[in-house]
Structures are given as structure tokens and as C-alpha cells.
């Protein structure tokens, strides 16, 4: 997906210049520079190819999953809040204290480094199944200052979350509130010549930053994966950092 290939500067330009500008009396917050982490596991180049065989390969998955057990310990030990204890069975937690966000991802996914993304976890067998987080500076203090869920959803899927060559369709755009902070969640499909990705994104603003978490799967595996992917986006929360 193109969302895994955008550079931070391109993402920022497309995103902040695309939304309708609204007058606001909110004072601008200080901006922060975003960073791309390089995990110690390994580097995987972004790929726009279709997912490989849809058949599960238990032996390989189990070997990959075992490799995640010990790295996950450091994540859990850093978490002083109850978030880790509430993690659903079959998921692993992520806690980023520097940028101020948490979420969970399915057990068995591997962390990879993708240029322009703050965090990326993906299934190395089904490459369209992934979760990525982008963090960019903003002077806004609430996601609603950019517009409604529908407005922002249409803009993101057409100009940021999918390449221009893909045909996109917004399925649903909703708003939820957690501890007084607004989050928008959008569901969409992006059609390429040889595959269709069914995806979910959740976006919010906090700490002077615009956060986007996107997850998805090949359309042919959507029914199998949708509950897990909804768990990923619903788990994403931002805290003061």
C-alpha cells in the first residue's frame, strides 16, 4: 500500500493541505518533529504486490511468533498503566512513551521498518495484513477542527492512504470519544489491478501531533480478519507525552 511508502514530508504536505481550512480561535500548539524508528528485528521493503497463498502455515507462524515473545517483555515492563493487563488474548501491546500512544496488534505479526512510518507491524505471510502508525506535527488541538469524519475520510483515502492509481471507496466514517478526546474511524476499500485491500484507519490529535493508525487485509480474507482489525483500531489511544 502506498501508505507504507509515503515519506514524512510528502504525507504532511498531502494531509495538511488537503483538508478544508476552518477558522478557529484555538491557540496553536508547539510542533514536534516526527521520527522513524528502526527496530532491531530486520528491514522489510514496502511491497504493493498481492498477498501470497491464503492458506495458513502453522509451523512457520509458530516459529515467527516465538521470536516475538522476548521482545514483547520490554514493552510490557515499560507499561506502568493498566493497558497491558487489559490486552485481549491473541494480541500484543505497543506503548510509545515518546510520542504518547498505545495500541495492540495480533500475535504473530512482526515489526518491520518502513520509511515514513512511526511503527509498522505486519504478517510476513499475508503482506496486506498490517498495522502502521504515522505521527506528524499539527497546530490543531482537536480532529474536529479539520471537518467531519466523512470529510476527512474522503480526503485521506483519495490523497494519502491509497495511491492515485487505485480506485477507493469510503464504506463508513464514525466518531468515538475516549477520555474527552475525539477519534475518527474510517473503513474503506482500495482496488488495485491484482488485489483489493479492505482497511480501517483511526485518526486523532494530541500532543501537537496528528496520529493515523491504519490496518487492513486482502478483501478475500476480510471476513476472517475483520474482528481482529477492529480490535486494533479500537485499542488505539493517545495520552499526554
Task: Describe this structure as you would to a colleague.
- It is a single chain.
- The chain is α+β, with helices and mostly antiparallel strands and 241 residues long.
- It has a domain of 148 residues: Protein Transport Mog1p, Chain A (3-Layer(aba) Sandwich).
- Helices cover 24% and strands 30% of the residues.
- It has 4 helices and 10 strands.
- The strands form 2 sheets. A 7-stranded antiparallel sheet has the order 3-4-5-9-8-7-6, with helices on both faces.
- The protein is globular and about 40 Å long.
- It starts with 7 loop residues before the first helix and ends with a strand.
- The N terminus is likely disordered.
- One of its GO terms (cellular component) is photosystem II oxygen evolving complex.
- This is PsbP-like protein 1.
- GO terms for molecular function: calcium ion binding.
